[in-house]
Structures are given as C-alpha cells and as structure tokens.
Amino acid sequence: MTHLAENDPGAIDLIDAEADSVPAPAPYRPKAAAARFLLGVSLVLIAFNLRPVFSSASALLPEIRDTLGLSATGASLLTTLPVVCLGLFSPLAPRLAQRIGTERTLLLVVFLLALGTALRGLSSVPLLFLGTALAGACIAVGNVLLPGLVKRDFPDKAALMTGWYTMALCAGAASAAGLTLPIEHMLGGSLDGALAVWALPALVVGFLWLPQVLATRKQAARTGFRVEGLWRDRLAWQVTLFMGLQSALAYCVFGWLVPILRERGLDGVTAGAIVSVSVMVQAASCLVAPHIAVRGRDQRLINVVLCGLAVVALLGLLFAPLSTVWIWAVLQGIGQGGLIAVALTVIVLRTRDPHVAAHLSGMAQCVGYLLAAIGPLIVGLIRGWTGSFAWSAVLFVLLGLGAAVNGWFAGRALYVKARTVETSA
C-alpha cells in the first residue's frame, strides 16, 4: 500500500494490489546489482508499453475512418473501448496475481498486449475492436500490478523508480502521439503497419522479461482480510468520482486532441507533436504535484486549481489562436498531469491502513475508469451530431466542474470510515 513516510511529508509510497495476500510477501532481500538493474529496466519498459494503444489510434483517427469506413459513432467507441476495459478488468489483477504470481501475470499481459496491438493492423474492423479490447484488458492488469512490484523489489528506491515508470508511461503515450503518423508516412502510407508497429516494443520487453520470470518461484496466496463499509462511505465515493472525472478529461485528451487540432487546420505531424509535448509535461507535473499536495493542511485548493487549469487550457486548445497552441498544450499538461498525481495521492491520504487503501484504489480504478469512458465517447458523438468539436467545450466544463466539486470534498483532511477485518484461515 501507499502511505506517507512520517519523516518526509513529500514522500509518496505505492499502493500494493496484493495487500490482502496471506502469507505476506517474503522480506526484501537485495538482488545482485546486475539483476536488479535488469529488473528495473524491465519494469520501466513494461510501463512504456501501457499507453501507446490510446494515442496511436488517436493520431490516425481520420485515416482509420476513411480507410475502414468507420462512422462517427464507431470512432467514438474505438476511443472509448480501452478505457472501459481499464475499469472492467482492473479488479481481476490481484486475483490473477494470487493464482499464478505477479511476474507470470505480467508476462502474460505483455505478450497478450503485443497480440492485441498487432491485431489492430489487419485491415478488419472486428479485429480492430477485438485487438483494442484485448490490449485495454492487459493494460488494466498491468496498471494495477506494476506499482506493487516496484514497492516490493525496490523499497529503498521507491520514489526514484516511481518517477522512472511514471515517465515511461508518459513517454509511451507521447511517442505514439508524435511518431505514429511519421511512421505511417515512412511505411508508404500503410495504416496497418503504423498501428501494428507498436506491438514490437511489447514483444521485445516480453522476451526480456521471460528469463526473469522463469527464475522466480510462484508463491501461493489467499485473501486473509476483507474491508467493510467502503462502498457505503460518502468520502470514498467522492474520491472515486474525483478520480473518474479527472480521468475522463485525460482520456478526452488521449483520444481526441490530435483530431481536434487537425480539424483546426494543423497538419497531422504537428498536431501529434503538440500532444506529445503536452503528455511529457504531464510527466513532469506528476512528479511535482504530490510533493506540493502533501505540504498543506489538506488538498482542497490544489485539487480545484488543477481542475480549473486543465479545463481552461483545453478551451484554449479548442478556440484560442493557433499561434498560441503550444502554450495551451504545456498548461494543459501541467494541469492534467497534476490532477492524475493528486487523485492517486488522495487515495493514500484518505485511508488509515494498507488494506483499505488497496480496496479504495480498486474501487476508484474500477468505477472511475468506467465513468472516464463516458468522456471520449461523448466527444465523438458531439462531433458526429454537430460536425464540429466546438460543443465539446460544454462537456469539458461540466467534467471539470464535477471533478472540482468532488476534488474539494475528497481533499478534506478526513479518513474513509471503512475498516479492515481479518478473516479466518
């Protein structure tokens, strides 16, 4: 679980998805330097592969619609599907890890992610959606399990490793946003190749991860604790809604910002580069925001300010002169990256013990991502109904207001009233 180090108000630990496992993980034993370096590199590379699915399709959405004859509704569903999968499949991660082991689960995730990504490049609408759903399910499981592995294997370097894998997540999204269209041009206009090429990094890291998995021993585990009262707790729902509504804004950016900028008159490569820069700014903001958030009496003000910044910047990207678009992209990255980080931090700060934190994290991810899927879906429907993205501004304002209200209440210096109960063996 993630908690705050008592001697460092800026230190944010990690939520452990297996906090309820019995027996507890074995005590940390330092690995040889070379093995530890390889493990760290592998985890960072796995993280890199958990975002290209979102932004690669976004970068090529006009081409996908033209080539495959996808309707506006179909394009909306394509951008929404992986986010829905994040919510539907994240609860499976701890169960899979307890049954076959965390390392083996991640190995399966990486190879299935490569398969799902490759299926998107077979010039078939059904396979495009099937591959997207498979990739989204894999990303959901990887999202949940990676922080626990970092906490377990790098307890003395948790902050450093958290920074690296957060940067890798953003780098994966930024790379796909900025490079997918140039890759399509380099491949002679091959839409299939530009979509499928993102399976290669996943395949490479899968083969890098394989020998390390084979060297580990699976430890059987059972659930030894349950958490009572979480789903009836008002504060838990405010945390969950804050997570979900800010995530809806984030996935509107991942799914639609490149098409929005292209419709405004920018060429595809420039639009992809702008989104790429914005996502990398998110990474920097992710590293700074939690340290600011934990230094105040509570997080109400920073939650609301970041919501306002993210929404105002999105409106600037929609309507401000194109000469200022880079400024708005940077501001949006600051606001959105900060929101993601403080939403995760609030989960930690509103809980008293690791078991409640792990369950609140699961609740926030499951419900929050299902709620977040509404954002990109409605953007696509608005574009189909009105022929323009302009009315998406109303949606962005409503999502921002909802996130700000719930962020205000979730930011109060209180604890959820759920409690941990030990179950019999």
TrEMBL record:
UniProt keyword Glycoprotein present: no
UniProt xrefs under Pfam families = MFS_1 (PF07690)
Q: Which organism is it from?
A: Shinella granuli
Query: What are the transmembrane regions?
Result: 37-54, 74-93, 105-122, 128-150, 162-183, 195-214, 235-257, 269-289, 301-320, 326-349, 356-382, 388-409
Q: Which UniProt keywords are present, listed alphabetically? A: Membrane, Transmembrane, Transmembrane helix
Listed GO MF terms: transmembrane transporter activity
- Gene3D superfamilies documented for this protein: MFS general substrate transporter like domains (1.20.1250.20)
The protein, known as: CP family cyanate transporter-like MFS transporter
